[in-house]
Design brief:
Elements lengths: L1 E5 L7 H12 L7 H10 L8 E5 H6 L13 E5 L2 H6 L7 H14 L11 H4 L1 H15 L6 E2 L4 H11 L2 E4 L15 H10 L3 E4 L5 H6 L4 E4 L4 H5 L1 E5 L4 E5 L7 H22 L1
Parallel strand pairs: 1-2, 1-7, 2-3, 4-5, 5-6, 6-7
Antiparallel strand pairs: 8-9
Helix pairs in contact: 1-2, 5-7
Amino acid sequence: MKIYLAGGVTGNLISFWKEAMKIYLAGIQSRSSSCIIGKAKSFVIGENKPLILESFFYLQKQNEWILKMKPFFGDFLLDSGAFTYMQGNGDKVNFEKYVREYAKFINKHKIDLFFELDIDIVVGIKEVERLRALLEKLTKKRCIPVWHKSRGKDYWLKMIKEYDYVAIGGIVSGEIKRKEAPIFRWFLETAKKENCKVHALGYTNLVGLTKYPFYSVDSTAWLYGNRGGFLYHFNGQSIKQIKIPNKRLLGKPAAIHNFSEWVKFQKYAELNL
């Protein structure tokens, strides 16, 4: 199982990654390339290259510098960021224009794994399908379609026959309730029959990960340490929270530590879950 760290190069880690990017990829610093590469690789924790999920919306806002760090990622997933974009633009969203910009970005950065605009609740499934077809035409690649409850089981069966990698959405929003998690078994069993891989968006319930063998998942859980004032620790099999009493955590060092521990957990999950 792959666990993608959503937000893994933004937030409190921006300054860290931008420092590495500026030195190695943008060539701003006057250091030798060997020192620059050594500095960047030291964060990757040996061979544990982080698996990263990021949003097209945020990458645009941050001038695309994150994509220059792709050689140091083990894998990369791109989310459309359409919902985030809508929050700041109300009813004025031109989704066809957005898809064209999304496709241009995908082509420019040679991104292989990217999600469709799963905005069923806003435009309906027929428009989602039209936008998906346009996205695939412009990129000449298959996207990862995202199933929502409104699509129904028959649509899921259709998706897993037509695609070799699909996703389940609505977990973070509560569309799929925690008590409904056992239905994941049906999704996984039917997908396995079609040799289709399944990604669970925003799902890193530690108990659930041992029950439901998704091909991949993503989460921003590693960020909660900074917000809650605790550190994460990978104990060799799971990830635990450690509260530091009477001590305020420093944002950047804590973020780097927590991110590093989650990268260790990524490697364990990929081999054991």
